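Appendix B. Raw example, untouched.
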Amino acid sequence: MEIGVAVIGLGWWGRELARAASHVPGLDLVAGVSPDAGERTSFAQDFGCAAGPDFADALADPAVDAVLIATPHSLHAEQVVAAARAGRHVFVEKPFTLTAASGRPAAAACRDAGVVLAVGHNRRLSGAATRLRGLLEEGAFGTILHLEGHFSSPSALAYRPDMWRAQRAEAPGGGMASMGLHIVDTMQWLFGPVARVSCLARRAAAPVDIDDATTALLEFDSGLTATLTSLFATSLDAWLRVCTTNGICTASDDFARLTHLRMDGTIEALPVEPVDTVAEQLARFAAAIRGEGNVAVTPEEAISNVAVMEALAASAAADGMWREVRHS
């Protein structure tokens, strides 16, 4: 079964999704959509498909069975609803929406239309994250004491005021929407829901008016604690550290490497399988459309992640006051 897909939003990440889709059997890239003529021309040439300016035209195209949405965060909710009403399956980049309140009806629209909805939290599919989950389920690390998460990038240093990513409305909590949310998703996938957060966000070096230094404390429903840092003006780095009574396990190098610092001070490298996580999430999306499997991230999980992001932004706006996470 060939599934015709249209990429909506042809910037950097839209092109990454197109690249990944080209490696997934059963996905046929048939169209791209962008208001930018230069992006459309380049995309059509590079991927050998049609490209137009109108989302509605893509939804009306009988060759399009599914859309891959990589547009500004503020557009996700309405575009997901429009695609569902047109009977098109939906893969949307994280964050699913900017508010849990807008995410719930968007998810409901997909459910009511009988279309598959998938959200792009890909780090949980990495070899390091899946191996870590298996070890945790085996009880390999004893009692979990605390988590430490980090995601940084120099991206904001190159932002211009006219870029959508440089707008505060699109970047709640600074880098949390584009980077930190990956760590939030992986933490909640491994350790359950976050109950409350305290967050500070500051603009230290960005040439545009968004925060670039964000740090948070998280408390889970279980009582587990965590720290999370997202920096938008330094070297690219992403890791998750799990501190336990049997040493410290770290998924590092953007979740490509897993190590165990033992109690005796020795470090063991734990073998992990390399995974093209972007392609893998699209492969699971395609399998779900065919009725042969499930998406990697459920709509409920994606909305839960948005709820944490909202609480982080609300806490940062209140200079670090604790905020409850409203998952439902």
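End of appendix B.
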